[in-house]
Structures are given as C-alpha cells and as structure tokens.
Amino acid sequence: MTAASTSDDVLDAALALADEIGWSHVTARSIGARLGGGPELVLTHYRDLDAVADAWFARALAAAMAGPVDDALPFDERLSHVFCGWLDALAPHRRASLAMLRTKLYPSHPHHWGPLIFNLSRLVQWMLDAARCPATGRRRQATEVAVSALVPAALWQWRRGDDEAARRFVAGRLQALERRLGRIWPDSPPQAPAGAR
C-alpha cells in the first residue's frame, strides 16, 4: 500500500480516470493502480465507488460554502450565488459528475435511491444555511421543497455546458420562488438575520 495515499488522493485519482475513460469504467483496481497499489487503497478510505462519488459532491459543496456571501443582497440572490458556486465547483469534472448521478439512478441500484434523497435534502439544507435563509416555519419548509425540486432541473440545464445559461436559470427560478412565497406569507419577508457575517 502507498503510505502517502489519502482520501483526497483516491478521489483525485478517481476523477482523473473518470475524465479519461468515463466513470462507468472506473474500478477500485484502476484507482489503486493509478496510485501505485491495489484496490485496497480505495477500501481504506471508501466503502465503495458510490462513496467516492458522494465525496466529490461533498467537496464541491464545501467549495461553494467557502465563498463569501454578500449580506446586503436579497436572499434569492445569496442563494443563487451559493447554488451556482456548487455547479461551478462541479464543472471541471462535468461529464464525470453527470455519470455519477446516472449511476446512482440505475434501476439495478435501488439501494442508492434512498441515500440519494437524503443527500439531496442535506445539500439543500447546507445551501440554505450558507445563504443565511431567514425563513422559518411553513415558509422555510416550502423553500426547502422548492429548492430540492430545483436541483435536478438546474443540473438538467447545466449538463449542456452553458454555465451562464444555467446561472440565469437558477437566478430566475429563485427570484420567482421568493415572489410567490412573499405573496403567500407576506408577514414573513426575507430579511438577513441580525449580526450575520
């Protein structure tokens, strides 16, 4: 085993291979060989290749959350900034990212469907947190549901490779969402929380 290999090394090797040969052809053995060892190098850090894919999406989310968010902006613009930051972080490995998602949705992989739903929920929660969502109660719940539905729609736009069009799509949808929710719950306008950084 290569003593210097880390979980990041394994992920980087997997992404490089996915770019070269396609995610569907990546195996633990090919990743291990890339690192100068065997498939045990992957197992040391990840339970399977689905966990490697999850690590990639988590890395992209961390990059999106690390970016500065302007509290002076309306909430929909703050959320659009975080959301599109996630897409931008995925963009260097767009084809691999989309293939990872397709693999999770294979009819022969029903064991991935449940975790995928929970991962989507966590993704949305972290995005709302990073954008400092001010909504509470039913408006917060409605926001979570709507943003969860926006994620696959945005990915469908983003898959084409036109990042600017994807950004406009996300921004327009979030702006329309805030207008609708403001009409339904006019007594809870989106305000930046006091003392937010």
Write a structural description.
There is one protein chain. By secondary structure, the protein is mostly helical. It has two domains: 7-43; 49-184, Tetracycline Repressor, domain 2. Helices cover 69% and strands 0% of the residues. It is built from nine helices and no strands. The chain has helices spanning 7-21, 28-34, 40-43, 49-66, 75-90, 94-104, 110-130, 137-158, 163-184. Helix 4 crosses helix 5 (75-90), helix 4 (49-66) crosses helix 6 and helix 4 runs parallel beside helix 7 (110-130). It is elongated, with a radius of gyration of 19 Å. The N and C termini lie far apart (44 Å). The mean pLDDT is 90.
Largest beta sheet, briefly? none
Amino- and carboxy-terminal Cα gap: 44 Å
| β-strand number | 0
CATH architecture of the largest domain: Orthogonal Bundle
Shape: elongated
User: What is the N-to-C order of secondary-structure elements (H for helix, E for strand)?
Assistant: HHHHHHHHH
Q: Work out the helix count.
A: 9
Name of the CATH class of the largest domain: Mainly Alpha
Radius of gyration from CA coordinates = 19 Å
Helix content: 55-70%
Strand fraction: under 5%
Structural class: mainly alpha
The residue-averaged pLDDT reads 90
How many domains make up the 3D coordinates?
Answer: 2
CATH topology of the largest domain: Tetracycline Repressor, domain 2
Poorly predicted parts: none
Describe what is shown at a glance.
The protein is mainly alpha-helical.
